[in-house]
Design goal:
alpha/beta; six-stranded parallel β-sheet; 13 helices; 6 strands; 9% strand; globular
Length: 305
């Protein structure tokens, strides 16, 4: 059986370039493992591969989900596992690349088998948040599942909503399901690597990349996205850079301030990503270079090519 290659790392670390190099070396096909690049309508602001990059290798799950929907890790793993089987069936190497740590964790360590959440329970949680605000949502999460709530940062409304909706829909705590996890890929079915660059170099790259996104038309992209009138609590509405640029379009801040805020949020997110991969996957191979040529040499040494 062809082993999958899993490539993880923080935002702006050069994952796309590395995945393409791996695809060309291993006759591979690339599967997106980034929760924001899943959504259609935001190719620039979510840093999806360019047309030229798409042309170099087959790509899957990029810009393929309507932004009005809420894709979960369960949706992603179901789609990814089906694609892995298809790619292996063609005799090619599945290469999964992205920065969403929970996706990789689900594949390699397991995903809690939580039942589907009914629409009424989900609507109850939305109404709770509207009526009581984040503090009320957190209080309800603590009541329903204090263990899970203690792991969630106060600003992470999506995870708090998940705790509450599971409690409403099932009458059980989310942690009761999490005790039943199992890996979706056997340990001999995959190899993992993490891009782990020097922090200041990555931060400089994040700042510059956002400026390049704007030059390429990211503000117009967000303007078109805002015109859809989607719920601001949807995952796509919270993609890095989208909230501050939308605030600018509403006249609430200058473009310069929006850029600074987006860059700051991206740096903070990258820091959290690096901490996650360091803690969750300490035994994965590491690539330290942000330079494409240097990263390619490190990849070749790891792959033995």
């Amino acid at each position: 059986m062809t082993r999958c290659l899993l490539i993880a790392g923080p935002t702006a670390a050069g994952k796309t370039a590395l995945a393409l190099a791996a695809a060309e070396a291993l006759d591979g096909e690339i599967i997106n493992a980034d929760s924001m690049q899943i959504y259609a309508g935001l190719p620039l602001i979510t840093a999806q591969p360019s047309a030229a990059e798409f042309a170099r290798a087959p790509h899957h799950l990029f810009g393929s989900v309507d932004p009005s929907t809420r894709w979960s890790v369960g949706h992603w793993t179901e789609a990814a596992l089906a694609l892995i089987a298809e790619i292996r069936g063609r005799g090619r190497t599945p290469i999964l690349v992205g920065g969403t740590g929970l996706y990789f964790l689900a594949l390699t360590k397991g995903l809690a088998p939580v039942p589907d959440i009914d629409a009424d329970s989900r609507q109850q949680v939305v109404e709770l948040l509207a009526a009581t605000g984040p503090d009320g949502l957190r209080s309800e999460a603590v009541r329903l599942d204090p263990v899970a709530a203690a792991r969630v940062k106060p600003a992470d409304l999506q995870r708090l909503m998940r705790i509450v909706e599971v409690g409403y829909a099932t009458g059980e705590a989310l942690t009761s399901f999490q005790a039943e996890t199992r890996p979706m890929l056997d340990v001999d079915e995959w190899s993992g690597m993490v891009i782990e660059p020097e922090r200041q170099e990555l931060y400089d790259r994040i700042n510059r990349r956002f400026e390049l996104m704007l030059e390429a038309g990211a503000l117009d992209e967000v303007r078109a996205f805002a015109a859809l009138g989607l719920d601001p609590l949807l995952p796509a509405s919270k993609a890095l850079g989208v909230p501050p640029l939308m605030a600018h379009l509403r006249g609430e801040m200058t473009l310069a301030d929006a850029v600074l805020l987006a860059q700051r949020d991206s740096r903070r997110y990258a820091k959290r990503q690096m901490t996650w991969f360091r803690n969750q996957h300490p035994d994965w191979s590491r690539i330290h270079s942000l330079d494409a040529a240097g990263a390619g040499r490190e990849l070749g040494a790891i792959l033995g090519t």
